[in-house]
Amino acid sequence: MKKTRVCNEDLKRERSKCSFDPEELTNLLDGGPDKTEERRERQRFFLSDPYLKDELPPEYMSHKEKYENAVKKACYLFRRVRESQDGGGGMESFRQVLGGMLGSAILKDGNPFALHYVMFIPTLMGQGTIDQQAYWIERAWKLDMIGTYAQTELGHGTFIRGLETTAHYDPKTKEFVLNSPTLTSYKWWPGGLGQTANYAVVVAQLHTQGKCHGIHPFIVQLRDEKTHKPLPGIKIGEIGTKLGMNATNNGYLGFDMVRIPRENMLMKNAQVLEDGTYTKSKSDKLTYGTMVFVRVVLVQDMAGYLSKAVTIATRYSAVRRQSEMKPGEPEPQIIDYRTQQYKLFPNIAACFAMKFSALWLWDMYNNVTSELEAGDTERLPELHAISCCLKAVSTADAASGVETCRLACGGHGYMTCSNLPATYGLVTAACTYEGENTVLLLQTARFLMKAWQQAVTGQQMTPTVSYLQTESLYKQTQKWEASLSGIVRAYKEVAAGKIKSAAESLERRTRGGYSPEDAWNMTSIELAQCAEAHCRAFIVEKFVDTLPTLNISDPLRAVLTHLCELYAVFWLLQRSGDFLRYSCVTARDMDSIQLWLETLLIQIRPNAVGIVDGFDICDEILSSPLGAWDGQVYERLFEEAAKSPLNKEPVNISFKKYMKPFFKSKL
Question: Which of 14, 175, 403, 434 is catalytic?
Answer without folding.
Answer: 434
